[in-house]
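From the methods appendix. Each design record in this collection lists the tokenized structure first, followed by the designed amino acid sequence. Records were kept in a plain field format so they could be parsed without special tools. The example shown here is representative of the layout used throughout.

RECORD:
FOLD TOKENS (286 positions):
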């Protein structure tokens, strides 16, 4: 009787807890989706309508906002190509170089390894904005203004990506595989590219995605370095609509924001399976 009573209590508590969990998840989902929904609503509203207050219903000014967005004198398609080039090159180069750095730190025991790892963790705590002034001075002294090189090269060694990939490697028998390959006469570079890199693919997908999104949404660094309008990115084009503080086209700005996060959504839809598996794989060790 006691066992049956305890089982009944457990069943009742489960039936009460589950709806509460679902309601909390539903609330959090709505809370996360609400800003995106408001952006999609505001791309159809005019600036006076947006200034008049919040609305949950769409309006009829989408084409007007599109014309406003293109009134900057810039080609939106060119801005897309510029942003896509920067984001893609940053994601590919940074993912490969960060995986190589994480592999080297994990595999090889060398003098100063702990100091290097501690320095890496310390760099993760420093806000990137702290280095903006010094970074601009270095770029200016090297004559790299109006160039994409300063936007891609500094991202090659991402401390956060190195840390994540290093932790992922601890869940793999990579040292054993490397030792077997060395016995067969394989070189270190071949071992990394042919053995370690394929094994790390589940972890590389989310890192590549996050780096792509970070480079795509990056506004401050391109704004500091690029002055040639033919090199402008999509976030920079949207910012031109608020250059006049006395007349800000909020409808066009919201449309620029919506257009700018559309590629990120498409990339996530294409890579979601790999991103989710990469974030969960390695969280548990056998």
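DESIGN:
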């Amino acid at each position: 009787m006691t066992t049956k009573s305890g089982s009944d209590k457990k069943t009742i508590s489960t039936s009460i807890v589950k709806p509460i969990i679902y309601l909390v998840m539903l609330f959090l989902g709505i809370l996360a989706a609400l800003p995106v929904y408001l952006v999609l609503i505001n791309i159809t509203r005019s600036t006076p309508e947006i200034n008049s207050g919040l609305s949950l219903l769409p309006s009829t000014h989408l084409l007007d906002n599109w014309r406003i967005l293109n009134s900057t004198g810039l080609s939106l398609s060119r801005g897309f190509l510029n942003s896509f080039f920067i984001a893609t090159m940053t994601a590919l180069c940074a993912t490969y170089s960060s995986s190589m750095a994480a592999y080297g730190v994990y595999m090889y025991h060398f003098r100063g390894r702990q100091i290097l790892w501690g320095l890496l963790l310390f760099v993760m705590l420093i806000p990137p904005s702290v280095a903006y002034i010094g970074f601009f001075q270095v770029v200016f002294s090297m004559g790299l203004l109006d160039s994409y090189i300063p936007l891609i090269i500094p991202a090659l060694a991402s401390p956060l990506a190195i840390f994540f990939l290093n932790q992922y490697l601890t869940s793999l028998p990579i040292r054993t595989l490397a030792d077997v390959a060395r016995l067969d006469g394989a070189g270190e570079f071949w071992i990394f590219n042919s053995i370690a890199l394929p094994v790390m693919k589940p972890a590389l997908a989310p890192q590549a995605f996050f780096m792509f999104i970070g480079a795509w949404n990056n506004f401050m660094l391109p704004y500091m370095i690029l002055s040639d309008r033919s090199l402008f990115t999509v976030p920079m084009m949207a910012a031109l609509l608020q250059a006049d503080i006395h007349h800000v086209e909020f409808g066009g700005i919201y449309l620029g924001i919506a257009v700018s996060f559309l590629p990120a959504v498409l990339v996530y839809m294409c890579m979601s399976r790999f991103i989710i598996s990469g974030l969960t794989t390695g969280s548990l060790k056998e």
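APPENDIX NOTE: The domain at 74-280 is CATH 1.10.3720.10 (MetI-like fold).
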